[in-house]
Amino acid sequence: MLEELRTHLQQELRIPAIRSERCVHAHIETASCRACVESCPKQAWHLDDDSLGIDVEACDGCGLCAPVCPQGAILHAHEPLLRQFNQTVVALAACEHTGLNGEGIMPCLHALGLHDLLKLYRQGVRGLMTSMGDCAQCPRQVNRTHLADVLTTVNAALTQRNYPAFTYQELPADAWQTQRQQLTPPRSQQQLSRRHFLRRGLQNAVQETLKWQGLLPQDSEKFLPPGTLLPKTTEPANLPYVPQIDSSCCDGCDACFNVCPHEVLFLDIDNPQYVIVAEQCTGCQICVDVCKPQAIHIEHWMIPQVTHLPLHYQRCRRCGVPFHRPVDYAANQNLCHICNQVNHYRNLFQVID
User: Fold this and answer.
1) Is the pLDDT of residue 184 over 50?
2) CB–CB of 207/217 below 8 Å?
3) What is the C-alpha separation between 103 and 229, in angstroms, rounded?
4) What is the pLDDT of residue 94?
5) What's the predicted TM-score (pTM) here?
6) How far is CA 102 from CA 54, 70, 105, in A?
7) Is pLDDT above 50 for 212?
8) How confident is the model at residue 317 (pLDDT cuts 50, 70, 90)?
């Protein structure tokens, strides 16, 4: 009985938490994102015209859906173990198929994505020690990005910014186990006094109580776009997601910046122009989904070439409403984006017998 209860609780803890208010489908009904559905090896996610949901019976808690969600709407509890290694802090993580258990064991190491690695770097982690099972024989081998590939991309971005890259060691299970036993917690954790420990615990308890009583939003921790987690640099550098606007097609409808949840795009009224802040982009594609003239797309890992798009203002010669539009717009410059699509001179006829 107790063993069944323990197994049930462990399974429940493996099910990912969902921040539904972050999901792109909560922002617009026409969102095209299917990342969680396509990444799930168990087909546990279901998306239709009415809802997005997860079959908790089918979900095995692998966490592979979390790193592919552009909005951080899916959270898992799988955390690497942080340890002090000489003068640096390293993260230890091992696959459950290694036969190991305890701290640092994850259902799948590939659940560590771009956002996770950048957060670890921000915490002072400079190395990864992993132990993996045989990925080629894993039943979860489906549409996933491998940890080593993500790490290579992150290290390239760090090197470009003249910051030290992650070191990486893939160890046999017994060697990994030895490192876990011998390495000590990071010095920053060791130096945490009893008073600070109790204060932090009290703060967390108060915060959770306020959330439960509805006095704090459940999603009080704001999701940080990966571009903002990269180290700052004064020189131009690649960013994970870079919106590109074709000024010859953009009709100035403002739909993109009205729906953007991270203020990547905004309108500068004082100096008529669209401003693009690529660091804030998560690659959620909402702007792409709402753009009728298909004037916008998202590039990956490039230096932003255009950060400002000049506009000109005028008054529509049909409806008389002021409007703005990129100066390079190729279509009729005298009509607003509504009148450009609607023929106001059509007549309505009614046939009476």
Assistant:
1) yes
2) no
3) 26
4) 96
5) 0.84
6) 27, 30, 6
7) no
8) confident
Comparing 298 with 215, the larger pLDDT belongs to: 298
Query: What is the fold, at CATH topology level, of the domain defined by 238-326?
Result: Alpha-Beta Plaits (3.30.70)
Query: How remote is the C-alpha of 209 from its chain's centroid?
Result: 27
d(CA 254, CA 291): 9
d(CA 115, CA 68): 10
Instruction: Say if CB 122 and CB 84 are below 8 A apart.
Output: no
Tokens encoding 36: 């969680």
Rounded CA gap, 72 and 283, in Å?
11
Q: Which residue has the tokens 């017994």?
A: 174
What gap in Å lies between CA 91 and CA 88, rounded to an integer?
10
* 3-class SS shares of the chain: helix, strand, coil, % to 5: 30, 20, 50
Contact present, 91 and 106 (Cβ < 8 Å): no
What is Dmax (Cα atoms) for the chain? 94
Question: Within 13 Å, how many C-alpha atoms sit on residue 176's CB side?
Answer: 29
Candidate CATH numbers 3.10.20.30, 3.30.70.20, 3.40.50.10860, 3.90.226.10; the one for domain 15-75: 3.30.70.20
CA 33 vs CA 28, 123, 269: distances in Å:
11, 30, 32
User: Do 15-75 and 238-326 fold alike per CATH?
Assistant: yes
